[in-house]
């Protein structure tokens, strides 16, 4: 018997993603911190977040300057630098671990008018009709206004 793709989160994935904040009902925002998590999100949600995550990570790595000239110490601080300088990639999940929306916010979640915030649903659909209160909760967590006109890139 052939089974379709598994779109649920495994316990390991639930544990590995960093909790960010709760949305209304039984929804939760998590931070995507690894390429494996980004790949899983891309498969689950049917979009290219893994590609954007990889490009952002590579750009952050290129800007790292080690404070040590000792070879084996040169990568100390790299991960902290990457976490500080690359955009935040986030996923909204329901209580069963199903993906509802994916967001890309400016580094540190700080307002940056030049940064294109992106929030999409499955297959790049508009997440606002079903998840606007959860998106508002995410914005409230960071002190950002995440309105549809600014954040949904495929609006008509």
Task: Explain this structure.
The protein has 156 residues and is α+β, with helices and mostly antiparallel strands. It has one domain (11-151). The chain is 37% helix and 17% strand. It is built from 6 helices and 5 strands. The protein has helices at residues 11-16, 35-45, 49-62, 78-85, 128-142, 148-151, and strands spanning 18-22, 28-32, 88-93, 99-105, 118-120. The chain has a 5-stranded antiparallel β-sheet. Strand 1 and strand 2 form a beta hairpin. It is globular, with a radius of gyration of 16 Å. Residues 1-15 have low confidence and may be disordered.
Distance from N terminus to C terminus (CA atoms, Å) equals 42 Å
Q: How many discrete domains?
A: 1
Structural class: alpha+beta
Report the sheet with the most strands, covering strand number, pairing sense and barrel closure. Answer: 5 strands, antiparallel
Tell me the number of strands: 5
Name a few traits of the molecule.
156 residues, alpha+beta, 5 strands, 37% helix, disordered N terminus
List the helices and strands and how they pair.
Elements: H1 11-16, E1 18-22, E2 28-32, H2 35-45, H3 49-62, H4 78-85, E3 88-93, E4 99-105, E5 118-120, H5 128-142, H6 148-151
Antiparallel strand pairs: 1-2, 2-3, 3-4, 4-5
Helix pairs in contact: 2-3
Give a brief description.
37% of the residues lie in helices and 17% in strands. It has 156 residues and is α+β, with helices and mostly antiparallel strands.
């Amino acid at each position: 018997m052939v089974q379709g793709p598994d779109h649920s989160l495994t316990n390991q994935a639930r544990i590995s993603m960093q909790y960010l904040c709760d949305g209304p009902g039984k929804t939760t925002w998590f931070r995507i911190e690894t390429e494996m998590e980004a790949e899983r999100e891309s498969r689950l949600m049917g979009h290219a977040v893994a590609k954007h995550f990889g490009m952002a990570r590579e750009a952050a790595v290129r800007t790292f300057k080690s404070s040590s000239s000792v070879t084996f110490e040169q990568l100390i601080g790299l991960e902290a630098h990457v976490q500080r300088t690359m955009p935040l990639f986030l996923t909204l999940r329901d209580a069963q671990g199903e993906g509802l929306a994916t967001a890309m916010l400016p580094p540190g979640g700080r307002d940056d008018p030049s940064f294109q915030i992106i929030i999409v649903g499955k297959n790049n659909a508009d997440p606002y009709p079903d998840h606007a209160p959860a998106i508002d909760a995410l914005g409230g967590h960071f002190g950002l206004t995440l309105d549809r006109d600014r954040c949904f890139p495929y609006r008509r």
